[in-house]
Amino acid sequence: MIERNITKLIHERLGRYPAVVLVGPRQCGKTTLARSFGGRYFDCEVDGDVARLDAEWDVVVKGDDLVILDEIQEAPDIFRRLRAAIDADRDRRGRFLLLGSVAPALMQGVGESLAGRMGLIHLSPFVLPELSDERLDDLWLYGGFPDGGIRDSAMYPVWQQDYIEAIVTRDLPLWGLTAAPRLMRRLAAMLGADHGSTFNAAKLGESLGVDHKTVQRYCDHLEGAFLIRRLPPWSGNIRKRLVRRPKVYWRDSGLLHGLMQVQDREDLYRKPFAGASWEGFVIEQTLRVLDNAGARAEPFFFRTSDGHELDLVLEWQGKTWAIEIKLTSNPNSAMIKRLHRVADHIDADQRVLVCRIAKPFGDERSLVCDLPRWLKELQTAATT
Predict the structure, then answer these.
(1) Which of 3, 71, 10, 24 is nearest to 43 (CA)?
(2) d(Cα 1, Cα 3) in Å, to the nearest integer?
(3) What is the pLDDT of residues 247-262, one digit of tens each?
C-alpha cells in the first residue's frame, strides 16, 4: 500500500472532532486508506451492510471502535441518527469516519445534520510526493487514480473511458442529475476540448441545445463529483479590465487524456493541447499538495482584457503567490521578465515559474524550478 500524505491530517482531525468526512472521487483510494485506521467498516452501497448497521446501531455507536461508513451519500437517513449519537456524548472525539464520493454541496445531510460536529477532508488521487520524482511523466499521462495506469500501464486508457462512462450513466443520475447520458458524454468531450480555457456556459449550451443555466447545473454536478474544476478569476482592484469568467479544467490528467484519445506519451506531445494539459496537471498537483497538508489557500487565475495573464494565483499565508506554468526545459529571460511584469500588477509577494528545468534558480522572492522542487517547496512552507 502506498502511504498517503493526508494520513497525518486525518489523525489530527479525528482527535479534534466526533466525525470526520473524507470526500473525493470514486476509486481514488478512500476505502483502502480508511480501512487502514482499523475499526468497524460498513459500506452503505451494500444492502447487507446497511441492514447490519441498522440492527446493531446502539452497540456500534456506544462502542470504542472507530466506525467507518463508506459511500455515505447512499444512506442519507443515517445523518439524523449520527447527529443524535454525537450529541448524546459531545466530548468523545474520533468516533466516525464518513466517506463520500460527492462534494458536501450535493450531500445535504452532511451540511444540515453535522454542522459543527465534523472535520472535512478532501482526498484526491495520487500526488507526485506520494510516488517518486521519476514517476512524473507517468503521473501526468495516466493520472493519479490507483487503477488508472500508474500501477499497471496496461489499464490506460480503457480504465479512464470506462470510469467516465460509469459516472455518466450510473452515478450522476443517482446523485440527482436528470440529464440524458448521451448529452453528458457530449458535454464531457466539449469540456475536454475546452480544458484550460475560459468557461462559456452560453456557448456550450448553444452546442448542446440547452440554455446556459442548464449547462451551469450540469457542470455543478461534474464539479461535485470531483471531475472538473472551475478556477475563478482574480478580482482585485487594478486599473486594467479583468476577465471575469472562470477557467475550466479536468482535474485528473489521465481522465482528460483518456477522453481526448491520447495513446501514449509521444502522442500526448503531438497533441495541440499538450501545454494546456501540463498547465492543468501542475495546478491540480499544487492544490492537492496544499489540501493534503491542511493548508487553506484560495486559488485563482489572472487575466486582463489586453492579454496579461498568470496561470495560477494563490492567496495563502497572508501573501499573494504569482505562478506561471510552461512546458519547457529551457525557460528564457523573456518568460521570467513577463512573469515579474504581470505579477507586479497584483503586487505579488512571491513569483514562481514552474517548468521542466533541471537546475532551479531564484532568490527570496522568486523561483524557477521543475514540478518536484515546487511541490517540495510547498510542503515545506505548509509545515513551517
Answers:
(1) 71
(2) 6
(3) 999 999 999 999 999 9
Based on the domain organization, do 108 and 146 belong to the same domain?
Answer: no
Pairing of strands 197-198, 247-250: antiparallel
Phi, psi (rounded to 5 degrees) for 370: -85, 175
Judge if pTM exceeds 0.85. yes
- Domain of residue 36: give its range: 7-122
Residue 136 inside a domain? The answer is yes
Indicate the number of domains in the chain.
3
Q: How far is CA 6 from the centre of its chain?
A: 13
3-state secondary structure of 321: strand
pLDDT surpassing 90 at residue 40: yes
Q: Are residues 292 and 374 in the same domain?
A: yes
Query: How far apart (Å, rounded) are the C-alpha atoms in residues 29 and 24?
Result: 9
**122: which strand partners?**
23
> Using one digit for the tens of pLDDT, what is the confidence trace for 318-341?
999 999 999 999 999 999 999 999
Q: Do 114 and 148 fall within a single domain?
A: no
